[in-house]
Design a protein that fits this description.
The protein has 219 residues and is mostly helical. The protein has a single domain, classed as Arp2/3 complex 21 kDa subunit ARPC3 (Orthogonal Bundle), CATH 1.10.1760.20. It contains nine helices and two strands; from the N terminus they run H-H-H-E-E-H-H-H-H-H-H. Strands 1-2 form a two-stranded antiparallel sheet. Strand 1 and strand 2 form a beta hairpin. Helix 5 runs antiparallel to helix 6.
């Protein structure tokens, strides 16, 4: 979700830059860079980021913002791991901002549309794995449901930032924005689940969270 600086308090705008830098450095330190050294991996990674950036340009907004669009964070997280997913989303947010956004709100957008969804998607996947390990559970539990849960978390975080910045407008944000975000739950789940299903069937090596032995053989 693209939060605009005029709706977010300066404390959020600039304070989140500190958190963004900390998470970015930690992600870069822990990232599996060896994976990108495999043949074709860089092309897959950059292609996925380009696709997500294009999806972000198809958006709608009420009033001055925030602007609503599909996220793609769960897809990136399950495909590349949380470290590369956050680094990738940081690049996507930078590209989206360069296309006409506000750099003052980059930090808060990196938090809401980067740190929150990646963390939720990764933790939710591990939670579902405790239930069992089979192909259908991965597709419908981790991918489909994970996409919906992740965007719901982003919606809650966005409303939380807006309400904390303008508590006098709490009714407006909840009544006008929250129902609109809810409309994105199924599309996000469908796109995430559909693309991951195709990937694990035809190119399972592209998805670091998918293990043939675990989800197909049951080992």
């Amino acid at each position: 979700m693209d939060l605009v600086a005029e709706l977010v308090s300066p404390t959020w705008c600039w304070g989140t830059w500190v958190l963004f830098v900390v998470v970015l450095v930690h992600s870069a330190w822990r990232a599996p860079w060896w994976w990108l050294r495999q043949p074709g991996s860089v092309n897959v990674f950059m292609g996925a980021l380009t696709g997500v950036l294009v999806i972000w340009q198809i958006r709608a907004g009420l009033g001055p913002g925030p602007y609503l669009h599909l996220l793609g964070a769960t897809l990136l997280t399950l495909a590349f791991g949380w470290q590369l997913a956050f680094i990738g989303l940081a690049l996507v947010i930078a590209g989206d901002t360069a296309f006409g956004g506000d750099w003052a709100s980059y930090g808060v957008n990196a938090l809401v549309s980067g740190v929150v969804p990646v963390t939720v998607a990764w933790r939710f996947a591990h939670l579902v794995e405790r239930v069992g390990s089979n192909f259908f559970l991965y597709v419908f539990g981790i991918a489909f449901a994970g996409g919906a849960v992740t965007i719901a978390a982003v919606a809650a975080a966005s409303v939380g930032v807006l309400v904390s910045s303008h508590p006098e407008r709490i009714d407006y944000f909840i009544q006008e924005y929250l129902p609109t975000w809810i409309l994105l739950l199924f599309p996000e789940a469908f796109v995430t689940g559909g693309l991951l299903t195709l990937a694990v069937v035809y190119r399972p090596a592209w998805i670091v969270s998918f293990d043939d032995r675990r989800y197909i053989d049951g080992h």
